[in-house]
Design goal:
alpha/beta; six-stranded mixed beta sheet; five-stranded parallel beta sheet; 20 helices; globular
């Protein structure tokens, strides 16, 4: 595909695409004037770096004040683009000496929320309420819960334990001021959530934990120059990578498999949302494959593109050797070399530009998310029904054995139903495991193991996502992208529940409604979706599910 990539880069040079990008020329993506106007209102990420560099002293001063006042923890309440960049920063840099420890809550799972609550001293915790729209149901629910918890401590000024990051004029901004929040950071409204890593959404939490946001912005500024309007596309790191991504996808290599240095391992979470939510629409898309352990060449079909973010560690060397064998077997491999973790600042911008360019090659608008609303609307409808009847309209399972029920595929046994589901796999497909379960390594382990077993047996790409978090990332691709996905939804009867103040439903009901709403959205689009509902002790039930998957694979073989 080198010829096609070279030709595309030459065409971009003739069409001045690099310059037009920085001029916010929306005709790069669409011809419709109305759509172009919407695109122009989503390109502020190109200009935000100099503004944020000026803000660094203020953000660092704010962090020092929190440190001096004895805050020991910070809890970010957010979803999708409001939470992923901060999550990457906390995993990569941790908290500097004396700065609060950051927890990121991007879930409606009651067990996970309670576990974070139990880890912090509420009287010494700052809550970061982050939502572009100010109305994200998960974030609003989390805020209601913790506002009541902090207020019940008898603190005279509970607002000093909260800050907001949102767009100007949102309901959250207004409520933050009315409740006396310590600060309300109003972000540029022309920046979409998944493109907001280098704005207040990523940098305020980064500053609070003492991360080197100045160095991250320096690297971002360097990358903006390397990707500048006068740089030829073949020498432009962002345009070059985006051209490879787009041309590979057009040629059927639409499974972009991320191989990331352990030092910045969680960077893949952020890239996953950026690519999936940006490109998965109009029946097209690039599937980012994050967290899938490298296998032998025989494990893969001819639909892969591998990208290695290499920081030169011993683990990187080992991964590089495996990638070399994949390259020799005919798989395309791109290696991006980083000097250290702060180079992530530049990578944020490189991947944003690359995703925008890949979207242009695919002929889609990479700055909207039309199908995310679909599951939200289903969830709201189901919650309204719960308010009216006191229960969710759960369908009857197709088959039940012991602690497992299946929905969506019929069979004489659980193994038979699973085998029927897996038998639909064909070259170019992918299988997504969507797990509405607590965040826990012991819970995730059997699902990740089953994932790799399925990849090796079916020779298709696999992904794993926690629900409802994935609804704000890969969820757009699942419904708006090509019809080449197989969806295994895993739900669970939580042993404990917690109320959400001010509404008639609890966190468990909300999470169940979100799972059911997405299941309906996928079924309504004719997608291949199997729901597995678990009861009893969770890890034990998951091991049973993993065993059933192994049996179904054997039957299929």
């Amino acid at each position: 595909l080198r010829g096609k990539i070279t030709d595309r880069l030459h065409r971009f040079q003739q069409e001045s695409v690099g310059r037009r990008l920085w001029q916010h020329d929306a005709s790069i993506w669409k011809d419709d004037p109305a759509v172009q106007q919407k695109i122009r209102n989503r390109l502020g990420w190109l200009d935000v770096i100099p503004e944020m560099i000026k803000e660094v002293p203020n953000l660092q001063k704010f962090a020092e004040e929190l440190k001096a006042e004895g805050f020991t923890h910070a809890v970010l309440l957010g979803m999708g683009g409001s939470s992923l960049a901060p999550d990457v920063l906390r995993h990569t840099f941790g908290s500097a000496q004396g700065y609060p420890e950051l927890h990121v809550l991007d879930t409606t799972d009651s067990t996970t929320i309670k576990s974070v609550e139990d880890k912090v001293d509420l009287a010494k915790t700052l809550f970061i309420v982050a939502s572009k729209s100010g109305t994200t149901i998960e974030t609003v629910s989390q805020f209601k819960y913790f506002w009541e918890k902090v207020s019940s401590l008898g603190i005279s000024d509970p607002g000093k334990h909260f800050i907001a990051i949102t767009d100007p004029g949102t309901k959250l901004a207004e409520e933050g001021r009315n409740k006396g929040f310590r600060a309300v950071f109003e972000n540029r409204e022309d920046i979409g959530g998944r493109y907001s890593a280098l704005s207040y959404f990523g940098l305020v939490p980064g500053a609070i934990i003492g991360a080197p946001i100045d160095k991250l912005l320096d690297r971002a500024q360097e990358m903006s120059k390397e990707c500048g309007p006068d740089v030829e596309p073949k020498d432009n790191p962002g345009v070059w990578l985006g051209t490879i991504m787009g041309e590979m996808a057009l040629a059927g290599r639409d499974k972009l498999t991320l191989v990331i240095s352990p030092g910045i391992g969680t960077f893949g979470y952020w890239v996953e949302q950026l690519i999936a939510e940006s490109t998965g629409k109009e029946g097209k898309g690039i599937l980012p494959v994050e967290g899938e352990t490298l296998g032998e060449p025989s494990s893969y079909g001819d639909d892969r593109l591998f990208v290695h973010l290499d920081m030169g560690s011993p683990e990187d060397k080992e991964m590089g050797q495996k990638l070399e064998s994949l390259a020799q077997a005919g798989h395309p491999v791109v290696t991006l070399r980083l000097a250290g973790p702060t180079d992530m600042g530049g990578e944020f911008l490189r991947w944003e530009i690359a995703t925008a360019i890949a979207g242009a090659i695919l002929g889609i608008n990479p700055f909207d998310e039309p199908n995310v609303q679909e599951s939200k609307d289903n969830t709201n409808r189901l919650l309204k029904e719960y308010e009216n009847t006191g229960k969710l309209p759960e369908p009857e399972p197709d088959i039940t054995e012991d602690s497992i029920s299946l929905y969506g595929y019929q069979g004489h046994t659980l193994t038979g139903a699973l085998e029927a589901f897996l038998s639909s796999a064909k070259a170019g497909d992918y299988l997504a495991i969507m797990a509405y379960v607590p965040y826990d390594p012991e819970v995730e382990k059997p699902l990740q193991e089953a994932r790799i077993q399925l990849r090796d047996a079916l020779r298709i790409a696999t992904t794993f996502g926690y629900g409802p978090r994935f609804l704000h990332s890969t969820g757009q691709l699942h419904k708006g992208g090509a019809d080449n996905g197989m969806f295994l939804q895993v739900t669970y009867d939580e042993p404990q529940d917690m109320p959400i103040p001010g509404v008639p439903y609890s966190f468990n009901v909300l999470k169940r409604a979100q799972a059911l709403g997405d299941f309906e959205a996928l079924k309504g689009r004719g997608r291949r979706v199997l729901r597995v509902h678990l009861r009893g002790e969770l890890v034990e039930a998951l091991r049973q599910l993993q065993s059933l998957v192994q049996d179904a694979i054997k039957v299929r073989s």
